Amino acid sequence: MALSFFFSPAVPIHRIISCQATANQLCAERVAAPSSSALSINPNNPISPPPPSLSCSLNCTHFQSCSGCTQDFDLHHPVVIDEAIGYFKKLGVKDFSFDSCRLWGWRCRAKLAVRGSSSKPLIGLYEEGTHNVVDIPDCKAHHPNINAAVELLKRGFRWIIELNVEPYDEDQGTGDLRYIQMAVTTHDTSLPIPERYKNGKVQVSLVWNSRSENSANAGKLNALAHFLWANGGPKRKVHLIHSVWANFQTSSNNIIFGNRWRHLLGERDFWEHIGGIDVSLAPSSFGQANTRAFDSLLRKLQKYVPLGASVVDLYAGAGVIGLSLAFSRKCRSVKCVEVNKESKQSFEKTVERLPTNVESNISWHHADASIEPTSWLLGSDVVVVDPPRKGLDPSLVKELRHISALELRTNSSKRPEKVRDEKRPWVLRAREAAIQIENTTVHEEDQSLPQTLIYISCGWESFKEDCLSLLASKEWHLHKAHGFNFFPGTQ
């Protein structure tokens, strides 16, 4: 669930913190049939009669054995929602909204383990508390085309049996295929908009148990990739496969991906339309599993960012949030800060496809937001944070809690401060007077402090801790809270 929280300070300075917290991110469509659903919970009447039980039940044959879902009924109403409504009421927010998007077939990105044998491969998730893989061919959370691509992959095991492609054996460290990642793009501009979701194409990433494409089992990899493309590519009646990638991983730990990626077949670039812009996502970069819920969150978020604002997007990934704001709110500047260097390529491709009327100063920085966070807060009207489940880094919370002191320190300084040149930020349309890549300086006129904080969280418990810490400082006041059902079937 994703929750959006907005704060304003108790002091005369107008400062709103848009704090969006995710515990199970949510969106809005109408609950009617398993193909599309919409629901908005009224916080003033949270016990209102739900729709008929069958319309909001998971009805998945894998529920008892699979660890992916933990809630079989009332998918539109995760258990945490009642707690969230009460929590925000106590903090003065009585109009908390919770919107639930597609309840079935919502997952457009899945990482699945591959075990078993070549004659009977098991492709799915681990059984709770074990490393025993549960085969989930009829997963109700998956976009239907993910299930179709998994079935095609199983056919490939059987079809090329003479090559003896083997699922990974974790105990022995042997076998060929360790994991797969399936990612669905629903952005096909050749189709009418209502037809695009159900006709999404699947990018298949094969996590191969070898060091590179030159290893001894490379022939098996190529044969499997060509089978997928021949039977699911553009020459087939149903074009299912968008592309095939390989990732090479030989480590014995639990890390799914290695550092080496290779594009094998199909389109190299993977695009999705989210938050009003075309977004490029490499298989190595993080992407939201529920693209429709994420789109709804972005469109809600955009309403809280003033036109022409200066924005810093912390924990930015490929910069989707920041770039959507640059487009929709005509931002003066957008800085995206991300510790994972693999996200840079996706950011660059997305920027290249932004409309020509976007005139923001846009930059992506390979940096840890917890190190010297002041340098990111300075010069920003709006701060967007989308941290991992553990919540905000303590150093960032500390700076936000003492934002007035930071303002006093800033006002007392009359000289421009040098911003650390951490991996040379990639800069688009940089104004010469404001930003120089080789020797970046921030002038006095750019040393304003945030007036808005938007917090997007996927960890309810960590968000509550961060929220109370910010409120206790008396610097911030909670203004708004919104929820988005990113993971129906979970609590």
What summary fits the major beta sheet? 11 strands, mixed
CATH topology of the domain at 109-272: OB fold (Dihydrolipoamide Acetyltransferase, E2P)
Quickly count the helices: 11
Termini separation comes to: 9 Å
| Strand residues, percent | 15-25%
CATH-defined architecture of the domain at 109-272: Beta Barrel
Structural class: alpha/beta
Morphology = globular
Name the CATH class of the domain at 109-272. Mainly Beta
Q: pLDDT below 50 for ≥5 consecutive residues: which ranges?
A: 8-53, 414-424, 428-444
Radius of gyration: 23 Å
- Count the E strands: 22
Helix content: 10-25%
Overall pLDDT metric: 84
Binding site for S-adenosyl-L-methionine: 288, 315, 338, 386
Keywords: Methyltransferase, S-adenosyl-L-methionine, Transferase
Protein name: Methyltransferase small domain-containing protein
GO molecular function: RNA methyltransferase activity
Give a verbal description of the structure.
Helices cover 23% and strands 24% of the residues. Among the domains are: 109-272, OB fold (Dihydrolipoamide Acetyltransferase, E2P) (Beta Barrel), CATH 2.40.50.1070; 307-450, 3-Layer(aba) Sandwich (Rossmann fold). The N and C termini lie close together (9 Å). A hairpin with a 2-residue loop joins strand 12 (271-274) and strand 13 (277-280). The protein has helices at 80-90, 144-159, 193-196, 218-232, 291-302, 320-328, 343-352, 374-377, 394-401, 403-412, 460-472; strands spanning 2-7, 17-22, 39-41, 97-100, 109-116, 121-126, 133-135, 177-185, 201-208, 241-248, 260-266, 271-274, 277-280, 310-314, 333-338, 361-366, 382-385, 417-418, 426-428, 441-442, 452-457, 478-484. It is built from 11 helices and 22 strands. Residues 8-53, 414-424 and 428-444 have low confidence and may be disordered. It is an alpha/beta fold and 491 residues long. The strands form 4 sheets. Strands 1, 2, 3, 4, 14, 15, 16, 17, 19, 21 and 22 form an 11-stranded mixed sheet that branches.
